[in-house]
Predict the structure of Contactin associated protein 2.
Amino acid sequence: MDLQVNTFQLTPQYNKKENTHTHTDTVVQHDLWARTYKKYVSFMNPHVAQSHISNKPAARRSEHEKCDEPLASPLPHTAFTSSSVFSNGYAPGYAKLNRRGGAGGWSPLDSDHYQWLQVDLGSRKQVSAIATQGRYSSSDWTTQYRLLYSDTGRNWKPYHQDGNIWAFSGNSNSESSVRHELQQGIVARFLRLVPLDWSEEGRIGLRIEVYGCAYWADVINFDGQGVISYRFKVKKMKIIKDVIALRFKSSESEGVILHGEGQQGDYITLELHKAKLLLQINLGSNQYGSILGHTSVTTGSLLDDNHWHSVVIERYRRNVNFTLDRHTQHFRTNGEFDHLDLDYELSFGGMPYSGKPVGGGRKNFKGCMESINYNGDNITDLARRKKLDMSSFRNLTFSCVETHTFPVFFNATSFLQLPGRANHNAVSVGFQFRTWNSDGLLLFSNLDDGTLEVSLEDGKITVHINVSTAARHYRVDLLSGSGLNDGQWHAIRLVAKENFAMLTIDGEEASAVRSTTPLTITTGGTYHLGGYFLQTLFPPSQRSFQGCMQAILVDDQPADLHAVEKGTVGAFENVSLDMCAIIDRCMPNHCEHGGRCKQTWDSFSCTCDGTGYTGATCHTSIYEPSCEAYKHLGRSSDSYWIDPDGSGPLGPFKVNCNMTEDKVWTTVVNNLPAKTPVTGSSRERRTVLQVNYSASMDQVTAITTSAEYCEQQIAYNCRMSRLLNTPDGTPYTWWVGRGSEKHFYWGGSGPGIQKCACGIDRNCTDPKYDCNCDADAKQWREDSGLLIYKEHLPVSQVAVGDTNRPGSEAKLTVGPLRCQGDNNYWNAASFTTPSSYLHFATFQGETSADISFYFKTSAPYGVFLENLGNTDFIRLELKSPKVVSFSFDVGNGPVELSVHSASPLNDDQWHRVVAERNVKEAVLQLDQTYRASRRAPAQGHTRLELFSQLYVGAAGGQRGFLGCIRALRMNGITLDLEERAKVTPGVKPGCQGHCTSFGMYCRNGGKCVEKYNGYLCDCTDTAYDGPSCTKGTRLSGEFIATDAAFSPMALTGASRDARVLTHQLTPREVNLTREELAFSFSTSNAPAILLYVSSKTQDYLAVVLRQNGEIRAVNLGGLREPFSIDVDQRNLANGQPHSINMSRVDRSITIQLDHYPPVSYNLPDASDTKFNLVKTLFLGKVFGEFVTLAQLFLLTVVFKLTLHTQKPHHSNTTESQLSSDTCFPEEIHRCTGRTCNSERLGGVLLFATSPLHPASS
């Protein structure tokens, strides 16, 4: 099998974000805009599962513009090599960009996935970009390729981006060029380009250019024995700021990179531990040991890959930035000190002495380091000039000694076949492997009379030996190890011979597993590693393996993988030789908020149990942001978990929520008992009482910041213990609030006023003082009051300074923090024109983004928000009255998620939208009912790169949004829509009409009252109280007349189940020319009678709902036809609360529905202006006349009727009630017999002031 190179397997994926070749001589360039630290550049054609086509242009950085020299075109032909050549004119030396020599570029003998083009840059170069082009004037070009790089031409490393082995888009013709900047730059000598796909019209064809600049660095080889000691200029160093930078590579998983320590217990250690980088810092613990300074942080993984890695440690006091290969962790050290006290020296490569707290037992570093810098000193340069102590080195070299490992990379379709001894009576095999998968076939061999299998099952090594002879069947099973799918290298050693088998894991002979089962073995002579796909009598339990192997021994002989690579020994399929392409998908950890990351070879998953968050990456909080939000979910007073910043860094915490009639109070308790005694304090030595809360200070600050108002009770009970003393002098006692700021005022007073509440009110027991306690009386006194400046709250400490005199006593009380309101929840803006918008800073949601908001509109469509990048974008939009869409592009092409509502969304009610995108999935949710999701591609771009401002409302020619947006939160930060709206034309701060959505929570006829930032339930006209008018047992209402001839009377006596209320309005006969009517209702049924006022004539007033839920007002009187007013065309029988306010003065009628502007109407000139002989008011039913209708009508009505009377009108008409044979006038209903046809029934307001139909007595 004449296979010359490592191979990868890739499923091509195409993307519109990068240009492809359109002409044979046009250049396709790829810029690497992170620095590269390798010496060889290699082009190779492997088959790898972890891959993706790079079609995403990265932003050019100014630093790379200075490193943009062509590196390949000046090289001689001999610097280019390849897997094969089609003919002499197609040699790799002709593969220079824009050159036409030979046949115009390189083409291999065969166009398959085993070809590669390689260039030797002569020395290590910093590579910033790469460009490709097809073969000149031909049909040959490369459409996809992968880039590998190396220092030595061995041990290749694939170029990674967005957590994947990257595949670049190439050319679409032979003329054009395509250039790519590399987001993760490299330093290399050899580059290898591996075609993955090519022209359908021809074959593989390639010309290339590599861009970059020279690179040089001092290198030191550490042999595992020698240590470099950097001596300080003074004996002891008290360091407040550190900057340490270096680059290293090693094939060892353990080793100390640097270490320093001091006699006071301070230390800093950077080391490799289990192939991860471990940084340990201790700036000191306090003398009691109660505050420990030890801090340990781990980053990275798989760092024993013998490739260069860059480390930067930046410390200022307790703040540390720890950067590995451009991934930065920020943390604060433990303890209370901020100086690093080191003695004598800092050592690199090991620990020359046994450190006190982190001492011996650690290995020294074995590998190479370069560019070591400590606080501005170039350690490697000082070592080269012999300015440092390096006496511990046996053989110090300033070049990197390369190791000779030869890894093999397997995917799900790979196998490696190696020869062994045939017809031998013993098996002896060994190898090292690393993988993330818990299961896989490591080795399989057909014996002369059976099979041998070594597999990974559930993270454990299992060995199955099956031997069948004519006499009997033998089976040996061995099991050892656990958790071996941790990505680390693990060594396997198996020996099997007659009546004996032994399995050893990681060289631990003491824990080796043995078997003495009767056994006879005759080897078959061939071994398959990583996969076996043929039929056999005893098939293996696993068929394939995804991972890497190295140090392979077969029959005690090292496998000659170089010969395998040349095709002279063994065989392989879809493996990559001399490379381990393992990726740690949990590093960096995309699982947020403490979510636990688990991974396989191809993917990772997050376990969010116990974190308080949910979603594919534990990004979204499962709790509401405030008590205000819980109230508007209909919750009552209780303890709740809240998460004020949602997906932000603050964790959830528990608070008490008190939903009162008009406010929502959030209470955070503290641990200071009421009236805590304080003794033994003086001005020189104050007693400091620490006040700790049930939430962290950051969490409490989040409450106070968003609250409308906060307060905290503080009280000082004293006997001969002074508090503040004088307004000008230094106070005996002060308190510390948010931000560790001291405050010299007391409860009931304010900032800058060194007084107590009695001093403000001028009612202190001794008027000479401004605090009761300052009188220094022998009797107990108290100074207490509320602290209400929320920017200062909560109280974190109180320092008491006058309880050390004989007879002095004091007791301190600090109450819980109480805050009301949530400005973030009600922060809203109204967009009044289609072209109006708000703009904010660019949204930073590269790998994880969540957006949530409420909206309400009567428009059928509109863009909620949009943010654009070069080609990336993110957009949320109301696409139609029932469809909300979430669309974005991170480089893999546009993606759109849509949710379809069963009912229109332009109903002028609040609806909630939640959208999230992360590296795993995208989710769109509407009203906690409708949900759509889309998995992210397994291999693809993951970073959302945006550049424009964030536009809320119309933007970029999109259809503008008309309506209100409220509580817009992006990645845990609430955008201040109101503040921006104040200075933006076409946008108004705030939004009225909260009652249309939340009025449903005002029960039992409670009236929803609009507030600027919400609503409240007015229970005045009900028999109920409470925040939602739910406390009570009966209905009542009130009628008010403003004329002396009309006496006020109360309406009572209707049970909770009553469907109709009646009231005799007049004690004597009354004619009206003015009325005021106000009531609210909610119902889900139509047609329905809302209100009817009868008279002793045929005059009447009525408000009814039509069949379609519309409300209509009709005035009847003096006309042949009723005067009908269509109040609203919407369906008001929607179960939501609605309010009607109506007033009439003579012929002028004004009607207001809900929060909409009042509308005026005029009665015709021919109509009468008097409502004669007003008699009875009916709610919900007119006795027996509309029984069918009344049964449909489950109505909550709150009413207040003011009747302005004229002169009394005497009539002999007998007061009557409408019987079951009587209907409203035929203009409202047509009656057939005793049944009323309500097909024309609508929302009707009726005035009848002259008889049209005979009355029924």
